[in-house]
User: Which sequence fits this backbone?
């Protein structure tokens, strides 16, 4: 006797049947057709952007008119608009892979190839002052074979492609994650997509459906809501070929191995319940390594704002929020940096801890600590700060808290190079996950170490995204770099996930993306927690991404300077 299906199953079956009927048509669309659809998406997105942000701000408890609205602009409509732009750029130059002609390529001290993807235009040089983002390729990729290892999914004639249905399980925290994951499946992997939104932010469906209507009307995309029951049904549906999840490792393992005791037995036996290809982005315990050097008081103040932003952007609900702050034990600036960090958090704009389960996760974090400090912040729970000693409770090195919580590890300093090598080894060997890490280091210290040797040390840091004097989260927003864990994880030890997204130049074998910024950027970046006009800048960048102009750029600069 067949089990009785829930009422919603018929709707999901219909959506998948519609996608199945159009999957080959989508796979065989020309670059020109895809560019035209993306241009239409931009038009529709512009129409709903304002309402999208207002709704997200209300749902997250951000006060109306707060500079924090800038986060919802920059990580919402602005990012999706720019995602369309970047794929349009690549597709328009796909013939002969001409988009590679404009990208500087160099060989690193360890022999790997690095490609600069930001800045890639005059606009970039102004908008992203001083930033440089590179993609470091896997060993074996050379300057000579780079083109052969780029956009290989576009090498065969479009008419020969066969379609698949990809299931995207959306993230509940950052608004642009789910639609950008869909663009990756559609444009990089030629798959039609069923997007299941996370219940935490499924209010975005009211804006994503009209924004992405051209793709929906083509038959390449469907968007649904539902909880774990809907997710489980879709993950095991006969029509679903491929799954991408952004979330927790526990959710990934439940999909692959099964829930509860069944899952544990399957994992131990190496017998997955779900044999589909599954890619993932699963977070971790992200470190920020502070390297000793000749920091001034102004340097300390600036980097306290940067670290506070790494921790409290989106109220701390980011998979790459700094969770382990690594400081030099004998450095006379470490205490001053922590004191400045506390001051920044105390003066931060007011916001609540909106994501479900935060109270329980913070309580668990505290329960594993020998001692606790609390950095108060307006309108929400204090940031829980735990002094951590090597060899104590490994929970703090392995559990992603996904809340405003921070461990502080002090390592023996020695000289800057030996300290940095020790910190890199600690992050690699002790901290769970390989999604992203940060290094804060004075330029004079880099010069003392030597640029080639410094890059050799960075190459030893096994993370998929590395921010140097910046935040690795900016790599997510830039879209040209890759976003995902360091390669090599397996289903039975998935860590921060398998595969990458974004990567709008379609490199086949990236190893990591590295973002380097000046030690202090002026004017203050609009994504800083402390920027007073971030809400204005975020709105203006969204409009600029829709249709760039010099006048719009000047307005962005004017508001950025006043932040």
Assistant:
């Amino acid at each position: 006797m067949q089990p009785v299906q829930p009422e919603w199953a018929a709707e999901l079956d219909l959506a998948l049947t519609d996608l199945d009927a159009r999957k080959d048509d989508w796979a065989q669309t020309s670059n020109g057709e895809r560019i035209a659809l993306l241009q239409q998406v931009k038009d529709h997105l512009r129409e709903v952007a304002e309402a999208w942000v207002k709704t997200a701000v209300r749902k997250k408890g951000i006060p109306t008119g707060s500079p924090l609205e800038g986060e919802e602009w920059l990580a919402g409509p602005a990012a999706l608009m720019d995602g369309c732009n970047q794929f349009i750029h690549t597709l328009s130059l796909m013939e002969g892979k001409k988009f590679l002609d404009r990208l500087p390529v160099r060989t690193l001290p360890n022999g790997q190839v690095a490609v600069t993807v930001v800045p890639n235009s005059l606009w970039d040089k102004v908008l992203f002052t001083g930033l440089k983002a590179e993609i470091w390729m896997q060993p074996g990729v050379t300057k000579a074979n780079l083109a052969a290892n780029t956009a290989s999914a576009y090498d065969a004639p479009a008419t020969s492609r066969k379609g698949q249905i990809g299931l995207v399980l959306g993230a509940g925290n950052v608004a642009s994650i789910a639609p950008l994951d869909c663009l990756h499946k559609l444009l990089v992997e030629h798959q039609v997509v069923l997007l299941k939104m996370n219940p935490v932010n499924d209010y975005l469906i009211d804006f994503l459906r009209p924004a992405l209507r051209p793709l929906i009307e083509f038959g390449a995309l469907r968007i649904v809501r539902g909880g774990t029951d809907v997710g489980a049904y879709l993950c095991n549906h006969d029509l679903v070929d491929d799954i991408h999840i952004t979330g927790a490792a526990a959710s990934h393992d439940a999909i692959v191995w099964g829930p509860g005791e069944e899952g544990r037995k399957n994992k131990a036996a190496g017998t997955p319940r779900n044999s589909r290809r599954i890619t993932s982005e699963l977070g971790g315990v992200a470190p920020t390594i502070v390297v000793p050097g000749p920091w001034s008081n102004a340097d300390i103040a600036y980097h306290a704002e940067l670290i506070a932003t790494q921790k409290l952007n989106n109220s701390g609900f980011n998979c790459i929020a700094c969770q382990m702050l690594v400081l030099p034990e004998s450095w006379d600036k470490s205490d001053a940096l922590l004191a400045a960090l506390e001051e920044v958090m105390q003066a931060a704009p007011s916001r609540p801890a909106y994501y479900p389960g935060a109270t329980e996760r913070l309580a668990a974090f505290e329960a594993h600590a020998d001692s606790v400090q609390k950095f108060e912040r307006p309108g929400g729970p204090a940031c829980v700060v735990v002094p951590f000693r090597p060899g104590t409770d490994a929970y703090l090195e392995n559990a992603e808290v996904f809340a405003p919580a921070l461990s502080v590890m002090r390592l023996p300093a020695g000289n800057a190079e030996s300290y940095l090598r020790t910190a890199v080894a600690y992050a690699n060997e002790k901290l769970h996950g390989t999604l992203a890490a940060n290094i804060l280091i004075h330029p004079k210290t880099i010069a003392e170490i030597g640029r080639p040797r410094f890059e050799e040390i960075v190459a030893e840091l096994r993370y998929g995204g590395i921010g140097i004097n910046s935040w690795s989260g900016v790599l997510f927003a830039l879209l040209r770099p890759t976003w995902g864990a360091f390669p090599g994880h397996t289903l039975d030890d998935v860590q921060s996930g398998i595969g990458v997204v974004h990567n709008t130049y379609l490199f086949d074998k990236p190893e990591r993306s590295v973002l380097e910024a000046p030690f202090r950027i002026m004017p203050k970046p609009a994504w800083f927690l402390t920027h007073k006009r971030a809400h204005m800048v975020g709105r203006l960048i969204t409009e600029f991404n829709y249709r760039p102009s010099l006048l719009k750029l000047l307005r962005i600069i004017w508001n950025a300077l006043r932040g």
Q: What stands out?
A: The chain has a mean pLDDT of 96. The radius of gyration is 23 Å. Residues 31-59 form the longest helix (29 residues). Residues 22 and 219 are 6 Å apart (CA to CA).
